[in-house]
């Protein structure tokens, strides 16, 4: 067996006394690990080299140990004493790397040793070793959550650390082990705000995100002025409270806590960071914490990120999509930055389209529609379809252009591409529902096209329209039903359902012409292979055809089936997305991701501010 | 934060895996492959995916997928930015970031990944720091290493990790001290059929190459800093000095780095260096079409336009092209349907032209839309926004460095709709 001989070779090399052979062997072993091949058999031979003087050899042995220790716990224990010795080494680099490896060995029996090592390292003179201990805290916590209380003590101690090197790592540990222990932050709050600019980029992201949550629990809302617009609402809110409280709140005008201001002031320069994650984290902080009129300072920086890698664009556009629903004004001056290029990826194009639609208003709609005309012709048909939906949304949101949009969509019905036609039909259907007057011409036009349309969703939409407005097209609707009777058996399920629907509505309004056709279709439906269609057919028959059994309901059939129906609301997929903190994974996926920390509502009354006072004021 | 990383080539082979916590089976990538299948083009794979137990965040770069496995809430940009930093580091170390290069240097790659993350949290990502810990491979060193068994790994903690200037290594020494800055501006534009500018803006970047002994403290100032509308900086730049005096004050990293990027206010009218006269048409009958493109100089500030290139993504139905270029060469890739016309230098006296016929698949409907033209070009010794560096001063060291600033303008995302 090739693998066996290879392993024998490697074993021999690892056990030789030549350093270069050992190193060569370890390199090959790491190559195996990288490829995902199993090299666990070599454990005894590898672990012997853990105390090697050759630093590269030693590091490769560490890589191996961390990978396989879990599977070979007994053998792994043989290496522990080497690390314990290294933890006391005068070289800080060796102390740190010993702690890194020791804490990465996922062997439960060494938990007490790890705990001791972490405690000692947290008090080390070298900030680099202390940083490593902050990382080790999280590793120990995931290995043994019962150590939580002791680990919190170490976190508390490290939070007091004044080194910029430690700050990001310990806040990371805090977030993972005890994110609810807000009380540990109070005394360190101002220090963290002041250190922030000098912390490394990754630490900045973590600290900013934690401070966003912190601020929402400690400060009162700076958005109160906004509430003035809605005075009635405000009144009822206070009325429901006790008279005493009412007086209290009204007496106090809003003054921003200086600590709240400190956070906003110290994060602002980071909008100029080269790191896109840092910029996004400041943007979300402003969105969730700043007075409304200050939020727009983040706009330029967010737009700048659109020049970055495609994946960055994707996340940033998602966040702008959410923001632009509530705050059109923030992004309207940058509307052209969201124009689509034919070389953009489809998901980027769709997001830009979403944002352009959110930004549309009476003033810019003609520019936007002109731009959309280009997109409708796109070779990327999925994108063309999305554009048609966007036109539909503009048409419902801005009444001035409803007719223009509708006419434009009707022209698209003669497009060569089936997806474009189908999407237009679906959107027209929705628009006609919102504007049900005098659109018989369009309905007639669609009936004419019906024979050539094959996309099921579009056929179903036209059938629904015929049924709903059958009294406006009294001559055409029965004819469409006649055609459907011929093709019923070969149609898709949604089309069949709408055919049954159309038959029922015609039966109620024009039974003279359509009674036989309806009965024929109901019979076909009764024996259909799909139980939904059989069910629906049985239900419709009972509802519309009077018989002894169905009695009361039959009288109301017309009122049930032909009731005026609320028009569908065409709204953004990003509506309400801001229930998740911006910039998070949960926001991106629109689901609550594991470990997501809810952002709390502002407290009505600010908690004690003095908790953040630090007794001795030291020079920074 | 980042649990595991898988490197996957464009055909879907996983050729490297690295786990920072417990091992996650590579079968988790199946969810990604499913999405990849659906997306058709690799660029269209969604960067963030959800699976029953994990989240996958992926970047696609240089025909490789960097797929990271995440278990709990994390800002997705944090992961994306980090993955790009990993790719940048490979590029920096090996000169390129490809499957072959990564496989050839798998041990160095592994050592780098080991240093870049601890327990899934970024540890050392600065090039200066990494290079002190893991030396980049050179041919000479690898020969010596094989003969003597010596290593590429440093045995002391890089000073950068400890100081307040983590981006610079200590003890830098050069016999020739030099500092070069390249001001590179890119014009992003969309022009419509008639040549009218739909959208245009200038994005700039200052790339630095600084080889200076000791701990130099530099100040770079501009003649017209007000032009800069929005900026982002390398961490070495002092925000406060910029805010108050509009100068760039910094202790530079050693070697090559991006000092700043900027955006020139969109209120300023953007000069468009070339115009494009084009006529692309497809006929209803005969399965053919015509193409005629001429390019001429517009606002070039008296400089020569070089490296002119036109790229067109043709509709799927275009089978072949029969064109004549008055200057330069053209190629049409039958598989990707991409037409590339490499024009070269733009001669204002004799405008380059590409014309001829396109033959279409029989029976295919006439394309709805004409393809857009993507333009590439370069103008040396010109920053199209007019930005000018006025001076570079050095403090903290006594020697006289050699200084230089170069300007160049390029087309960025420059698209002509037809």
UniProtKB/TrEMBL annotation, chain A:
Membrane topology: Peripheral membrane protein
Keyword Transport listed: yes
UniProt cross-references to InterPro entries, sorted A to Z: AP_beta, AP_complex_bsu_1_2_4, ARM-like, ARM-type_fold, Clathrin/coatomer_adapt-like_N
Gene3D superfamilies (UniProt xref): Leucine-rich Repeat Variant
Subcellular compartments: Endomembrane system
Molecular function GO labels: clathrin binding
Keywords: Membrane, Protein transport, Transport
Domain of life, source organism: Eukaryota
GO terms under cellular component: endomembrane system; membrane coat
GO biological process: intracellular protein transport; vesicle-mediated transport
Domain Clathrin/coatomer adaptor adaptin-like N-terminal: 5-545
Keyword Repeat in record: no
Protein family membership: Belongs to the adaptor complexes large subunit family.
PANTHER family, per database record: ADAPTOR COMPLEX SUBUNIT BETA FAMILY MEMBER
Stated name of the protein: AP complex subunit beta
TrEMBL record, chain B:
GO biological process, one term: intracellular protein transport
Location of this chain's protein in the cell: Golgi apparatus; Cytoplasmic vesicle membrane
GO cellular component, as recorded: clathrin adaptor complex; cytoplasmic vesicle membrane; Golgi apparatus
Domain MHD, residue spans: 176-417
Transport in keyword set: yes
Main location: Golgi
Keywords: Cytoplasmic vesicle, Golgi apparatus, Membrane, Protein transport, Transport
Classification via Pfam families: Adap_comp_sub, Clat_adaptor_s
Cross-referenced CDD domains: AP3_Mu_N
Membrane topology: Peripheral membrane protein
Function, in words: Part of the AP-3 complex, an adaptor-related complex which is not clathrin-associated. The complex is associated with the Golgi region as well as more peripheral structures. It facilitates the budding of vesicles from the Golgi membrane and may be directly involved in trafficking to lysosomes.
Family: Belongs to the adaptor complexes medium subunit family.
Protein name: AP-3 complex subunit mu-1
Lineage of origin: Eukaryota, Metazoa, Chordata, Craniata, Vertebrata
């Amino acid at each position: 067996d090739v693998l066996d001989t290879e392993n024998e070779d490697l074993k021999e090399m690892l056990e030789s006394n030549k350093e270069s052979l050992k190193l060569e062997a370890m390199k090959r072993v790491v190559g195996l690990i990288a490829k995902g091949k199993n090299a666990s058999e070599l454990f005894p031979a590898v672990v012997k080299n853990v105390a090697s003087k050759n630093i590269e050899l030693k590091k490769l042995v560490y890589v191996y140990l961390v990978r396989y220790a879990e599977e070979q716990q007994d053998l792994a224990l043989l290496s522990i004493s080497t690390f314990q010795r290294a933890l006391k080494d005068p070289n800080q680099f060796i102390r740190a790397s010993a702690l890194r490896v020791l804490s990465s060995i996922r062997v439960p029996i060494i938990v007490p040793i790890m705990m001791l090592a972490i405690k000692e390292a947290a008090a080390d003179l070298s900030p680099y070793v202390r940083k490593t201990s902050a990382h080790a805290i999280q590793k120990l916590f995931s290995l043994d959550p019962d150590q939580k209380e002791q680990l919190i003590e170490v976190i508390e101690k490290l939070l007091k650390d004044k080194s910029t090197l430690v700050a990001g790592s310990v806040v990371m540990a805090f977030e993972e082990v005890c994110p609810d222990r807000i009380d540990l932050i109070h005394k360190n709050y101002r220090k963290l705000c002041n250190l922030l600019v000098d912390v490394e980029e990754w630490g900045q992201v973590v600290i900013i995100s934690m401070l966003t949550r912190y601020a929402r629990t400690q400060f009162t809302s700076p958005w109160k002025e906004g509430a003035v617009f809605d005075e009635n609402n405000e009144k009822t809110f206070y009325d429901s409270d006790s008279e005493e409280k009412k007086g209290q709140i009204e007496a106090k005008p809003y003054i921003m806590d200086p600590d709240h201001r400190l956070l906003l002031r110290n994060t602002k320069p980071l909008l100029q960071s080269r790191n896109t994650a840092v910029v996004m984290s400041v943007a979300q902080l402003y969105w969730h914490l700043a007075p409304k009129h200050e939020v727009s300072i983040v706009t330029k920086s967010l737009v700048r990120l659109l020049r970055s890698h495609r994946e960055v664009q994707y996340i940033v556009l998602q966040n702008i999509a959410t923001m632009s629903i509530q705050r059109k004004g923030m992004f309207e001056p940058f509307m052209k930055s969201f124009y689509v290029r034919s070389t953009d990826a489809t998901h980027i194009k769709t997001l830009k389209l979403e944002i352009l639609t959110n930004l549309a208003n009476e003033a810019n709609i003609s520019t936007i529609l002109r731009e959309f005309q280009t997109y409708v012709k796109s070779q990327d048909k999925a994108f063309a379809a999305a554009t048609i939906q966007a036109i539909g949304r503009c048409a419902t949101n801005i009444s001035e252009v409803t007719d223009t949009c509708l006419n434009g969509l009707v022209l698209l019905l003669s497009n060569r591409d089936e997806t474009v036609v189908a999407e237009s039909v679906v959107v027209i259907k929705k628009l006609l529902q919102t504007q049900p007057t005098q659109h018989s011409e369009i309905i007639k036009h669609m009936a004419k096209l019906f024979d050539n349309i094959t996309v099921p969703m579009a056929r179903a939409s036209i059938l629904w329209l015929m049924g709903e407005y059958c009294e406006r097209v009294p001559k055409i609707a029965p004819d469409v039903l006649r055609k459907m009777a011929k093709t019923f058996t070969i149609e898709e399920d949604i089309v069949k359902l709408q055919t049954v629907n159309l038959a029922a509505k015609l039966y109620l309004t024009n039974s003279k012409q359509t009674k036989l056709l309806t009965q024929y279709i109901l019979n076909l439906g009764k024996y259909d292979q799909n139980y939904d269609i059989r069910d629906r057919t049985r239900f419709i028959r009972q509802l519309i055809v009077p018989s002894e059994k169905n009695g009361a309901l039959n009288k109301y059939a017309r009122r049930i089936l032909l009731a005026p129906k609320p028009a569908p609301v065409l709204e953004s997929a990003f509506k309400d997305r801001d229930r998740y903190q911006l910039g998070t994974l949960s926001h991106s996926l629109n689901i609550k991701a594991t470990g997501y920390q809810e952002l709390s509502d502002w407290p009505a009354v600010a908690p004690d501010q003095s908790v953040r006072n630090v007794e001795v004021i030291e020079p920074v | 934060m980042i649990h595991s990383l898988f490197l996957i080539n464009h055909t879907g082979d996983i050729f490297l895996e690295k786990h920072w916590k417990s091992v996650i089976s590579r079968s988790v990538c199946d969810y990604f492959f499913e999405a990849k299948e659906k997306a058709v083009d690799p660029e269209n794979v969604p960067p963030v995916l959800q699976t029953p137990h994990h989240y996958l965040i992926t970047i696609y770069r240089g025909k490789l997928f960097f797929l990271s496995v995440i278990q709990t809430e994390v800002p997705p940009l944090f992961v994306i930015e980090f993955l790009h930093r990993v790719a940048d580091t490979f590029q920096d170390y090996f000169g390129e970031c490809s499957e072959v290069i990564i496989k050839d240097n798998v041990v160095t790659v592994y050592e780098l990944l080991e240093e870049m993350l601890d327990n899934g949290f970024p540890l050392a990502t600065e090039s200066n720091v990494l290079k002190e810990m893991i030396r980049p491979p050179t041919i000479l060193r690898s020969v010596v290493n094989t003969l003597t068994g010596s290593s590429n790994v440093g045995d002391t903690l890089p000073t950068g990790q400890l100081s307040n200037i983590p981006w610079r290594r200590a003890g830098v020494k050069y016999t020739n001290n030099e500092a070069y800055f390249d001001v590179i501006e890119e014009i992003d534009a969309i022009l419509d059929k008639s040549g009218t500018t739909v959208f245009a803006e200038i994005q700039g970047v200052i790339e630095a190459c600084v080889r200076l002994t000791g701990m130099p403290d530099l100040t770079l100032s501009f003649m017209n800093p007000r032009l800069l509308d929005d900026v982002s900086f390398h961490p070495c730049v002092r925000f406060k000095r910029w805010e108050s005096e509009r100068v760039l004050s910094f202790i530079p990293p050693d070697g090559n780095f991006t000092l700043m990027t900027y955006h020139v206010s969109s209120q300023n009218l953007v000069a468009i260096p070339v115009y494009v006269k084009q006529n692309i048409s497809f006929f209803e009958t005969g399965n053919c079409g015509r193409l005629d493109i001429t390019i001429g100089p517009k606002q070039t500030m008296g400089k020569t336009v070089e490296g002119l290139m036109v790229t067109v993504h043709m509709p799927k139905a275009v089978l072949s092209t029969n064109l004549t270029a008055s200057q330069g060469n053209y190629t049409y890739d039958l598989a990707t349907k991409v037409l590339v016309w490499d024009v070269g230098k733009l001669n204002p006296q004799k405008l380059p032209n590409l014309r001829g016929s396109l033959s279409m698949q029989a029976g295919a409907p006439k394309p709805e839309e004409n393809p857009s033209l993507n333009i590439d070009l370069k103008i040396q010794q010109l920053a199209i926004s007019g930005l000018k560096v006025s001076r570079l001063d050095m403090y903290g060291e006594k020697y006289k460095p050699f200084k230089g600033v170069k300007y160049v303008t390029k087309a960025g995302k420059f698209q002509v709709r037809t």
